[in-house]
Amino acid sequence: MKLAIDETRCKGCNLCTKVCPYKIFKEGKRLNRKGVALPELDRPERCANCRLQKLYGRQLCGVCQLTCPDQAIHWIEEEPYELHKVAIEY
Amino acid sequence: MSYEDWYRQDRLPHIFCAGCGNGTIINCTLAAIEQMDWKKEETVFVSGIGCSSRAPGYILTDSLHTTHGRAIAFATGVKMANPDLHVVVFTGDGDMAAIGGNHFIHACRRNIDLTVICMNNQIYGMTGGQGSPTTPKGCLSSTTPFGCAETPFDLCELATAAGANYVSRWTSYHVKELEKAVKVGLETPGFSFIEALTQCPTAFGRRNKFRQVSDHVEYLRSHSLLKAKRDRMLENHEQIPEDMYIVGEITRRKRPAMGVKP
User: Fold this and answer.
1) A9, B91, B146, B262: least buried by Cβ within 10 Å?
2) Model confidence at A78: pLDDT above 80
3) Which residues of B touch A8 (CB under 8 A)?
């Protein structure tokens, strides 16, 4: 699973930057076609739901999705054999 | 299956302003309803007039968008005509506390089996930011340009005094708690009232030094006081700060209810 922000729905309120416990969402700088600065994802592979949803078989955390007032945040399935970035945290 | 299936995907994105908390509360409500195993044909959403009352238009069930303040009156009729339906009322503070105040207290008195979710943004947002009965003392709005001089309503105390079976208050920051509170409210037979404080960046925050949405959400977070902590402070005879408001489950009881099938 991986995080995805729906560009047609996000209005750029940046509430997700406030609620994520891992601080994955960062305030964006670049405006998109609608004139909205979408939040940027900072190392999204740390997201607990992305990593562990398959293992636990249920939704974990999910505060960003519940908080997003515009229903713009969701998780999508990864392509088979998609490249992964591995982050080692000490 | 997730709660997103309850949305009318063709109506989204909705027209609420950027940063409005109403979308968050619809998310929490639908997430709670998703856990109840209710059919879409047996669920009815009723609302009045206002920003918050646009919510049922985005939900894929039967819904009623009624006259100003009369959402609870219409919902009473729906529930009495067909007690098999599950009726949820979305309403705002200006809709329910100001114009529909009498309908609200009498629905509490009769203890009809409804779930009322009040999105309290402390102002009339849609009509241009006039002061509502829940505008806190000293806050600016377009009808109180020198600060509101009146004491606001405490809607939870009002519902408790009028006789509702389940009363709780959360904010749009406390999403998980709000979801659980709505679920308990849906399960409770009788009148259940959930007040959700939200931010209104366009009408309220702009005049009250909350330029950023996150400032207002931070205010909601830092000025909420859990009911258990309030009780503990009262036991120790500590001073409770005046600008704090109480969050949590305020009332749960088993008064005889109307509209519940035996």
Assistant:
1) B262
2) yes
3) 13
